[in-house]
Amino acid sequence: ACFSVDWYLDLLFNASATNMIVISALPFAGSPLNPDVMKATIELADSLGCEGRVLMQGEAHPSAGELNDALDNMSTISAAMPVGAWKTYTHWGGPGWWLDDHDPNAPQVGEAFIQRASELGPNIIAVHKGFGVGSPYAHPRDVGPAAAKHPDMRFVVYHSGFDIGWGAEGPYDEANDNGIDRLITSVRANGIGPGGNVYAELGSTWRALMGNPDAAAHAIGKLLVAFGPDNVVWGTDSIWYGS
Hints:
About 35% of the residues lie in helices and about 15% in strands. By secondary structure, it is an alpha/beta fold. It has one domain: TIM Barrel.
């Protein structure tokens, strides 16, 4: 759905029990949800007494066009906006790429992006992994290596690697290269355990799971064991679907 700023804030803060909002960048440059709109939303919420309850993510599309231009755009956004995290998509918004640059045939932009995010701050990268619409670059195999190489950075994995069309979530299986298991395998293979610098986010994932209690229980259980209770991040994406 597409809402005005006023209607959006009314729905989230007056018509629901929402305490915090994170406005997430979309996977293409020039979207209507641009940094200026995000900033205006924060300023309006603050003026209405909701200080600190709306956060924005700075957009980053390192494989779209020239890398230096993308990095410069991050610097421009950082200088002008109250960025709470950096949001990126490794499978949309440009040619597919990896956070750890492990594939020489893919654009080598991951390390440069992480370094720029580290320099600018904050030290939080939100990356879409899962719901890949057939793209191999939505696989979270690069999360573990990137997080292990950058222990000073925090990686919030949107959707926790969950996907549809392959089967149902069950007990963790290291040999399963689908869904949430593949994210868990990636972080464990790189020595990252509960309370580490990787966070599993549930937006859209929970919507897809909540109609199947068995799969939902397995998913939450696996995430709690692998990441710890403080590293499983609640999210709904309800603005896309309705509550």
